[in-house]
Specification:
The chain is mainly β. The chain has two helices and 14 strands. The protein has helices at 2-12, 86-92; strands at 19-23, 31-34, 53-55, 61-67, 70-83, 102-115, 119-121, 129-133, 136-137, 139-142, 158-160, 165-175, 181-185, 193-197. The strands form three sheets. A seven-stranded antiparallel sheet has the order 2-1-10-12-6-5-4. The protein has a five-stranded mixed sheet with strand order 3-14-13-8-9, with no helix packed on it. Strand 8 and strand 9 (136-137) form a beta hairpin. The two termini are 31 Å apart.
Length: 201
């Protein structure tokens, strides 16, 4: 799983941004992780999933996700998205030239365990969160947001019981000047939940 790979990468090097991962659409996504030596870019052939429920920022939607400990029902709510400036983005990446024309967008997503068991450690539910800009999925920037204000690192989450909530952040690289920014989360066998942020900042 993507989370396990990123956890190992982050443990191996004390830098904030370690790699870019472009994720495939749909459930059970297989990820290809590339280092920043490869150009971080959005997937031009990737369009936003059709259908599903569009929610207001902060509004929760429910879906099931299969963790290692079993299938958990989560309430998911994208709280906010912050789009960094080009100057801020250059500080996040090891090779600023590779980020030309792109900026970092970070989503704060709150997950609440609504039932199905206890997640013993390192939940993977946030791996299903993606950021789209003007209908195109961005490129996942690994290790950029785990220690941001209000963000929790999944490595530190243990014994996640029913009724408890955690806020997990994801950072994606998106084209500078995008007019529409969306957060998508897809549960098992369901259409994506979509939150639209017109003026993310």
């Amino acid at each position: 799983m993507l989370h396990k790979k990123t956890a190992l990468l982050r443990a191996a090097a004390p830098v904030a941004v370690l790699a870019l991962a472009l994720t495939a659409c749909g459930g059970n996504k297989k990820s290809t992780t590339t280092t920043e030596n490869d150009a971080p870019k959005t997937e031009k052939g990737s369009s936003a999933p059709a259908g599903g429920g569009e929610l207001k920022p902060g509004q929760g939607g429910t879906g099931k996700f299969k963790e290692e400990d079993g299938t958990i029902t989560y309430e998911v709510a994208a709280q906010k998205v912050k789009v960094s400036t080009e100057a801020e983005t250059k500080k996040l990446v090891s090779d600023p030239k590779r980020a030309k024309g792109l900026v970092a967008a970070t989503a704060w997503v709150k997950y609440t365990n609504k039932g199905g068991g206890v997640v013993k450690e390192s939940p993977d539910v946030a791996d299903e969160s993606e950021i789209y800009a003007d209908g195109q999925r961005g490129g996942l920037l690994i290790g950029a947001a785990e220690d941001g204000a209000g963000c929790e690192d999944t490595i530190d989450i243990e014994n996640w019981k029913t009724g408890q909530s955690h806020t997990i952040c994801q950072t994606y690289m998106i084209p500078k000047g995008a007019k529409s920014v969306e957060v998508h989360w897809t549960g098992e066998g369901s259409s994506p939940l979509i939150w639209k942020f017109d003026n993310a900042g």
